């Protein structure tokens, strides 16, 4: 069983930066992992993806965050990060970490509880 715990959200002014962390317990080395975000009344949207071992392709970013957000993973402590730079009010959302079952790339069965990011103008 995989458990995901996000942290690092908060309030920041436009142009600022935040780094989100997702601590994963359980086996995730062959899992793809991702960051999603959601605003009230809207669907959850994937913004960045980290490939699982054996998965073809590298990291992926939504166009809305490309060049500003960087996803990374520290396999030692099994933590997924999302570095967010040049934040705008449009980045305000609840951010969720997700993981797939081993080898079931890009199909996410495990979710964290979310961490709120609020960007003020």
Task: List the main descriptive attributes of the protein structure presented here.
single chain; 121 residues; mainly beta; seven-stranded mixed sheet; four-stranded antiparallel sheet; 11 strands
Write structural notes for this entry.
A hairpin with a 4-residue loop joins strand 7 and strand 8. This protein has no helices and 11 strands. The mean pLDDT is 94. Strands 2, 4, 5, 6, 9, 10 and 11 form a 7-stranded mixed beta sheet that branches. The radius of gyration is 14 Å and the shape is globular. The protein has 121 residues and is an all-beta fold.
**Overall strand count:** 11
Residue runs with pLDDT of under 50 for 5 or more positions:
none
- The CA-CA distance between the termini, in Å, is 40 Å
Please outline the major beta sheet: 7 strands, mixed
Secondary-structure content class: mainly beta
Mean pLDDT: 94
Shape assignment? globular
- Strand content is over 45%
Number of helical segments with 4 or more residues: 0
Order of helices and strands: EEEEEEEEEEE
Name the helicity range: under 10%
Q: Specify Rg, calculated over alpha carbons.
A: 14 Å
């Amino acid at each position: 069983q995989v458990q995901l715990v996000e942290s690092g959200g908060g309030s920041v002014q436009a142009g600022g930066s935040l780094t989100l962390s997702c601590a994963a317990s359980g086996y995730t080395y062959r899992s793809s992992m991702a960051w999603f975000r959601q605003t009230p009344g809207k669907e959850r949207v994937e913004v960045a993806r980290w490939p699982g071992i054996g998965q073809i392709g590298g990291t992926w970013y939504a166009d809305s965050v490309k060049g500003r957000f960087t996803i990374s993973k520290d396999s030692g402590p099994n933590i997924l990060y999302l570095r967010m730079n040049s934040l705008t009010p449009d980045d305000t959302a609840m951010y969720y970490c997700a993981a797939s079952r081993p080898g079931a790339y890009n199909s996410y069965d495990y979710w964290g509880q979310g961490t709120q990011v609020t960007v003020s103008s």
